[in-house]
Amino acid sequence: MNIKVVAGVVAGVILLVVIGGFLLADWTYSEGMRQGTISKISRKGFVCKTWEGELAMANFSRDGTLSQDNRGTDNTFYFSVDDKKAANRLQDAMRTNTVVNLAYEQKLFPLSWWLPGTCQRRTEYEVHDIQVVGSAPTLGNPKVPQQ
Fold it and tell me: Which residue ranges make up each domain of the chain?
């Protein structure tokens, strides 16, 4: 076989893999909404700067009540935001301890390659809408039974 043909086939396969990766990276696996308070929002990266955040969701017991006894469960939702305006809204919500609903799309895998145009997210979850709900609930002081 001619070396030019082999090089062309190899280059074609590499091109197909790269294009397929880009198409799969943007494919939405699931969509949903999560509610909680923003515990962290930051801009991360050396070359690719992306907005990344954490949503602290309430811990509920099996009977559906908010409880202080659920401390062992990590109920943190890690997400990425592709819009500076949305990141600013999340920062405002964090400062005021406001409950928010985050509408998100779950992608197949994170996309943080060091190539131009690929600095989109470091998590699978990409937030595309933010709804402010209100102030965060508090547990208050638990009632102590009287003897």
Answer: 29-135
Distance CA 127, CA 105 (A): 7
The CA dihedral of 37, 30, 51, 100, to the nearest 10 degrees, is -20
Q: Encoding tokens for residue 71?
A: 């401390």
Look at residues 79, 9, 85, 83 and name the one whose alpha carbon lies nearest to residue 38. 79
Contact of 126 with 112, CB cutoff 8 Å = no
Do 77 and 33 meet the contact criterion of CB atoms below 8 Å apart? no
Helix then strand then coil, % of the chain, to nearest 5: 25, 40, 35
Domain 29-135: assigned CATH number: 2.40.50
- pTM attached to this predicted model: 0.68
Secondary element (H or E) of residue 25: helix 3-25
Q: Could you report the per-residue pLDDT of 30-87, keeping only the tens digit for each? A: 899 999 999 999 998 777 788 899 999 876 655 555 555 555 566 889 998 988 899 9
